[in-house]
Design a protein that fits this description.
single chain; 255 residues; 0% strand
């Protein structure tokens, strides 16, 4: 456990120094909430304001984009020239993977909670007992996103290609899931495409919990995400590749 906490501390210090991660999950959501909330103010009714709407959907969308940030974090030991020393220590691969996942989760949850607290005070998001389920959803999603990003960063040979490819479906899911504009349609095909987006169900679950006090859907999603977390984490440990861990000469990763 001592080795794990040493690795966790090392990774946390690096994550906290990265303006990229903090900007993606704090500054970007705030800017989008303010801009889109002001632009679409007249498109919302009295029950939910535009600022409340984007205070719910935008942090979740930016949280999903954190996969790319965490994937890069999988390479920072190589870039900082510490990967060889860590492997020679020796440190078990499961400790390396766990430290990456936990540190990424802590940073993502912290950033999301900062935005959420701001939304409660400035956008008047209802602070009821059901808000705890939204917090649990953010925590489990952060864990899953960190696990997927770590899997990409530590296990995939074509890291840059996969990193660029995975950003595209996240953006598509965000668009059809209502991250930028609300979608409502009577067309069966378009409704099917909307329902194919995981963010559609995640956003819907949050609104049901916060404004209708219906927590059934959000509970089911939390359980499903937790199961995926276990599967992806185990897969990350199993697929850990030493050569990918120590290789840090990546285009686009210069500082």
């Amino acid at each position: 456990m001592q080795v794990f906490f040493q690795m966790l501390t090392l990774n946390l210090k690096r994550r906290m120094r990265e303006g990229f991660a903090l900007g993606y999950n704090i500054i970007f959501p705030i800017i989008f909430i303010l801009v889109l909330g002001a632009i679409t103010r007249g498109m919302f009714g009295n029950e939910i304001s535009s600022f409340q709407y984007y205070s719910v959907v935008m942090p979740l969308f930016c949280l999903c984009l954190g996969i790319v940030t965490i994937a890069y974090a999988g390479k920072d030991d190589a870039y900082q020239n510490t990967a060889y020393r860590i492997m020679a220590a020796p440190v078990q691969p499961k400790i390396i993977v766990a430290a990456k996942i936990v540190s990424g989760t802590i940073v993502l949850v912290s950033c999301s909670m900062i935005v959420s607290v701001g939304a409660i005070f400035f956008c008047h998001i209802p602070l009821t007992g059901d808000f705890i389920f939204v917090i649990l959803l953010i925590m489990t999603l952060s864990l899953l996103i960190s696990a997927v990003g770590t899997l990409i960063g530590l296990s995939m040979k074509n890291f840059m290609i996969i990193k660029n490819i995975i950003s595209f479906p996240i953006c598509i899911f965000g668009i059809v899931g209502g991250a930028f504009f609300r979608f409502g349609t009577s067309d069966a095909i378009l409704q099917f495409l909307i329902n194919c987006s995981p963010l559609t169900w995640i956003n819907r679950a949050c609104f049901l919990a916060l404004f209708d006090h219906n927590t059934e859907l959000i509970k089911e999603i939390i359980v499903g995400v937790l199961i995926l977390c276990v599967v992806v984490t185990a897969f990350s440990v199993k697929c850990f590749k030493k050569e990918e861990y120590i290789y840090g000469n990546l285009p686009g990763y210069e500082k």
